[in-house]
Amino acid sequence: MEKIVDRINVAEQDIGKAELLSIIVSELEDLDISHIICLALGSPESSSAARYQLALLKKLVEAFKISPSKVFLYDPVFTDTDKQVITSLGYLLESLESAVKSCSEEPSTSNEQSEKTEINAKDKTTSRTLYFLPHASLELTEEVLSRYHARYLLANDAIAHTDRLTTRKLYDNYRTLSYLVSLTEQSSVDTQFQTVKKKRRQKANVFVEPKLDFSADNMYFNSTTIKRLPTEGPWGNAFTDLALHKLDYK
């Protein structure tokens, strides 16, 4: 375990000097992030990428002054050593459902109590929760969006990671992701750090993708921005296609 911790500490030094970290912090520092739910991290014991991702998580917890008891991680690949490392940091090992429930049980602040608008506990929590999903599957990302109404996601660029799917297949299988992508494609994507997004592929001389109708889906957001992040560094592919997604509520 000590060897793994030492490697994570070295990775943390690299992250601390990285533009990647400073950009994420500057984008989120005014949002009063109070919880982080991290899924699909991988195994820090066996993966250098996972160690760098955990190092980034540690720096974000530090930057936003989040209590370790409000940081939740889950990945079925975690080894016993991984679990020892994570819990030694004070973080909690909980499933996605349990983590969201734990966040929802947090008492409201005095400012929240004074709000006249009635908002359910889940919405209060998710509006201050950052979901960190390094290299999560489309299925997991869809669940986080559709079931738990995530508002801030540090995850695979939704445009890049759905480009291999036709518009219809994305709509049929990942409805909330499809809506997110459609909103983003209607507006500009922040391309300060990478090339502009690729257009969704269309097969020539076959058919034109039908216009999609989301009117009956009762989506919880109506605008989104995706900020692609600089990913080059000593961490290899740890942050390939990483982007910050912000979803605005209706």
Automatic annotation (TrEMBL):
<dbReference type="GO" id="GO:0005634">
    <property type="term" value="C:nucleus"/>
</dbReference>
<dbReference type="InterPro" id="IPR012942">
    <property type="entry name" value="SRR1-like"/>
</dbReference>
<comment type="similarity">
    <text>Belongs to the SRR1 family.</text>
</comment>
<dbReference type="Pfam" id="PF07985">
    <property type="entry name" value="SRR1"/>
</dbReference>
<feature type="domain" description="SRR1-like">
    <location>
        <begin position="28"/>
        <end position="245"/>
    </location>
</feature>
<protein>
    <recommendedName>
        <fullName>SRR1-like domain-containing protein</fullName>
    </recommendedName>
</protein>
<dbReference type="InterPro" id="IPR040044">
    <property type="entry name" value="SRR1L"/>
</dbReference>
<dbReference type="GO" id="GO:0005737">
    <property type="term" value="C:cytoplasm"/>
</dbReference>
